Amino acid sequence: MVRVRGRGQGRVNVAGVSCYCPGCRSHLFYKLHVHHGRKGEPKSFAWTDYRDLIVVTHQQLGTPVVWCWDNLNRHLVRELTDFAEENKGWLRVFQMPSYAPELNPQEGIWSLLKRGIANFVATNLTGLERIVKRKLKKIQYRPELIDGCLAETGLVIEAQ
User: Is the pTM value of this prediction over 0.85?
Assistant: First the structure.
């Protein structure tokens, strides 16, 4: 979370996935949710948003997907478990251990993003959204950065 000062009540949430395959280029996919602070407007992602991110990732990669969740409460809802079970032909889901961000390469992506936006000033929510998108695109098109986030965890992807 990056806190900013100002009168607005909005926020920009980001869900992202780092994709690795031996001998292939690493990928970063993400989805933004902008909350404008309006009454009745959802403040964060719904389980359907995470489902849609999984589906888009699968479609973009054109291959079966192994998905590793951290312990965010939205990741643990029954609907996502049911979705994974219904799509077990192309989707395998693993739960990461509690309190183990050092094993999650996506945490490295968030660190790169936070450092990338640290020196920018957003005058409004639209400006913040634009800055976040721009910085994520820069990471997205530099697979060596994404690879570095995996290397930092000490995990190794092996071909089978």
Answer: yes
